[in-house]
């Protein structure tokens, strides 16, 4: 009897193990640094797709997921084909005869019937790759919005949440030896309260594989991660680490070469494959917006080598000042979404991104706020190259589920991935942990934990979040307790648009800010339809927006600690909330540049103000 019970228990355990054996959910471990610089097989281009609002390709008719079943089969990821003509099986999908979508690219802008679609779409791409002995292979997606389930040759690699951070899987032992492979992605952009972002945002919920896809090849032992930066607030010390992965990562030699700076260091990895370093930096030319100097940095170990272009600078605050390379600076910024309104949908390539940053330069910026989520790795590299400091942010936006532990974990993972991706970029000077989050105890715990996490992961940059204000008469008060944890007191402030009357009335407001830190206005603005003219009191007109900017700048000049701003926003952008049929038409019109590329009057107001600030702080 006892034996029988034991046997049954054993059988139950084996059954459970068996069902999981089919689909080990490979959590992505560490993000490999600078993946696009590797030898890659691009998976960009056409992918076949199936729209699946009922998720028939994922669940059986009892709503049990196929990929959790004993066989692990039955889902669209099998990419099944009829096996014999005599006994045709019932297969109710066929990727190869389905239409295609371009990758990278959101689905909304590629097929009119997908414009407002929120739900699941399956993507499939076949590719030829015969794995070579002694090599490792990693499948990479720059971003998939929002939840993705990824399968290679019918087997699950894993699930990823978060629409703006890279996804990587080691697929070395999953590639077919004969070279015929297929990858299937279930992308689901359903909005949910407990996710990050939550259900409510002011941007278009673009779905799909929105950034590049490729497979990178590395040697068996490879450079996983590295950080090469100046030490915290120290212009004379280069510090960082190199991390190897693979079987022979311990006790290896790593060479760090920055030829132009006459740096050549031989490092030894420890038992975990990590080699840390710290040494004096001699005669470096520091990165700055005036001179965005980047050094060619080369890391090599065994047969692996990675090249990067890295700038060196320090950023810190002292009282009211923001100090770049030890010198006080004013952050002449503008906010930007990952969208170039001249093309439909998300920005897709370097050209779209370069155009946005070139406009920011023309405006006189030395700073950009890449709102409200992690932007493309290419964007971060372009900012380095063009001499723009960057505020990088996670989509902790408005009213998140503050008390849900999984929501916090999700936000923290997105923050960690953003910091991992951006840590070698000189341009990034601020990590923002969120935007306009409403005061409460649970929110303070959530947000301050995120701020502490950001500092723990990277203490060389400033930490902030876009805060809200409240008013008593003409007194604008900023006393959000989260401010204690932040380096910049950043405020979103919409005098003259959402409150405070007409633009001409807002100069009466004065600011009462609790913290003696640099004050940064992370947003202000108002909508204007380009080409629509009226007086300074005609809402939606260019003149109204112009007056709003003029009076905002007057009002803000009374803040003694003011050290920068990123008005909202560089260009008009698509937003489902913006429904006015005459003035908005599905666009948030707070852009200084319209959806057809036309500069509005307010553009020139800010440009002139930035000219004066540049003169005051940089002497030109
Ligand atoms: C805000 C939000 C931003 C919106 C903007 C607006 O405060 O941070 O995402 O788009 O206001 O236009 O209302």
Principal-axis shape equals: globular
Radius of gyration from CA coordinates: 26 Å
CATH topology of the largest domain, by name, is TIM Barrel
- Bound small-molecule species: (2S,3S,4S,5R)-3,4,5-trihydroxy-6-oxo-oxane-2-carboxylic acid
Oligomer: single chain
Characterization of this structure:
The chain has 620 residues and is of the alpha/beta class. It has three domains: 19-219, Galactose-binding domain-like (Jelly Rolls, Sandwich); 222-313, Immunoglobulins (Immunoglobulin-like); 316-618, Alpha-Beta Barrel (TIM Barrel), CATH 3.20.20. 18% of the residues lie in helices and 30% in strands. It is built from seven helices and 35 strands. It has an eight-stranded parallel β-barrel with strand order 23-24-25-26-27-30-32-33, surrounded by five helices. Helix 3 (377-386) links the parallel strand 24 (367-370) and strand 25 (389-393). Helix 2 (350-363) packs parallel to helix 3, helix 4 packs parallel to helix 5 and helix 6 (542-556) runs parallel beside helix 7. Bound molecules: (2S,3S,4S,5R)-3,4,5-trihydroxy-6-oxo-oxane-2-carboxylic acid. (2S,3S,4S,5R)-3,4,5-trihydroxy-6-oxo-oxane-2-carboxylic acid (GCB) binds at residues 202, 372, 435-436, 492, 523, 568, 588, 590.
């Amino acid at each position: 009897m006892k034996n029988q019970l034991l046997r049954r228990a054993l059988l139950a355990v084996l059954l459970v193990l068996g069902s999981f054996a089919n689909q080990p959910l490979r959590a992505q471990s560490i993000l490999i640094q600078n993946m696009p610089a590797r030898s890659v097989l691009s998976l960009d281009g056409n992918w076949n797709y199936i729209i699946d609002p009922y998720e028939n390709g994922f669940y059986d008719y009892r709503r049990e997921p196929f990929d959790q079943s004993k066989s692990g089969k039955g889902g669209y990821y099998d990419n099944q084909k009829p096996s014999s003509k005599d006994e045709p099986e019932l297969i109710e999908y066929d990727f190869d005869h389905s239409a295609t979508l371009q990758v990278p690219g959101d689905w909304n802008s590629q097929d009119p019937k997908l414009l407002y679609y929120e739900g699941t779409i399956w993507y499939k791409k076949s590719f030829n790759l015969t794995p070579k002995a002694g090599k490792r292979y990693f499948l990479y997606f720059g971003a998939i919005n929002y939840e993705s389930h990824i399968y290679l040759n019918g087997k699950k690699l894993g699930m990823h949440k978060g629409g703006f951070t890279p996804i990587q899987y080691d697929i070395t032992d999953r590639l077919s030896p004969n070279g015929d492979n297929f990858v299937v992605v279930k992308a689901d952009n359903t909005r949910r309260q407990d996710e990050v972002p939550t259900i409510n945002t002011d941007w278009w919920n673009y779905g799909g594989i929105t950034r590049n896809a490729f497979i990178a090849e590395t040697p068996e032992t490879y450079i996983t991660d590295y950080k090469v930066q100046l030490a915290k607030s120290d212009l004379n010390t280069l510090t960082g680490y190199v991390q190897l992965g693979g079987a022979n990562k311990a006790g290896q030699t790593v060479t760090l070469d920055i030829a132009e700076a006459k740096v050549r260091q031989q490092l030894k990895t420890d038992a975990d494959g990590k080699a840390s370093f710290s040494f004096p930096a001699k005669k470096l030319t520091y990165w700055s917006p005036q001179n965005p100097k980047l050094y060619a940095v080369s890391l090599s170990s065994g047969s692996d080598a990675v090249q990067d272009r890295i700038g060196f600078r320090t950023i810190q605050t002292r009282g009211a000042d923001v100090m770049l390379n030890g010198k006080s600076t004013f952050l002449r910024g503008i906010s930007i979404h990952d969208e170039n309104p001249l093309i439909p949908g998300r920005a897709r390539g370097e050209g779209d991104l370069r155009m946005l940053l070139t406009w920011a330069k023309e405006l006189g910026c030395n700073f950009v706020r890449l709102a409200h989520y992690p932007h493309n790795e290419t964007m971060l590299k372009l900012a380095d190259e063009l001499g723009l400091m960057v505020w990088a942010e996670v989509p902790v936006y408005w009213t998140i589920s503050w008390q849900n532990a999984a929501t916090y974990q999700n936000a923290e993972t997105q923050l960690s991935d953003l910091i991992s991706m951006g840590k070698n970029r000189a341009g990034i000077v601020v990590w923002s942990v969120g935007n306009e989050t409403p005061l409460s105890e649970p929110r303070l715990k959530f947000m301050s934990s995120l701020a502490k996490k950001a500092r723990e992961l990277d203490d060389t940059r400033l930490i902030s979040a876009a805060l809200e204000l409240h008013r008593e008469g003409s007194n604008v008060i900023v006393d959000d307790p989260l401010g204690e944890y932040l380096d910049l007191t950043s405020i979103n402030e919409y005098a003259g648009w959402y409150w405070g009357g007409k633009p001409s009335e807002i100069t009466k407001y004065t600011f009462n800010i609790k913290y003696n830190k640099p004050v940064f206005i992370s947003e202000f603005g108002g909508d204007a339809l380009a080409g629509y003219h009226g007086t300074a009191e005609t809402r939606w007109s260019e003149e109204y927006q112009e007056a709003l900017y003029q009076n905002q700048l007057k009002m803000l000049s009374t803040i003694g600690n003011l050290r920068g701003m990123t008005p909202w926003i560089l260009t008009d952008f698509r937003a489902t909330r913006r429904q006015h049929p005459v003035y908005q038409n599905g666009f948030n019109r707070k852009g200084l540049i319209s959806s057809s590329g036309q500069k509005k009057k307010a553009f020139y107001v800010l440009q002139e103000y930035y000219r004066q600030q540049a003169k005051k702080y940089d002497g030109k």
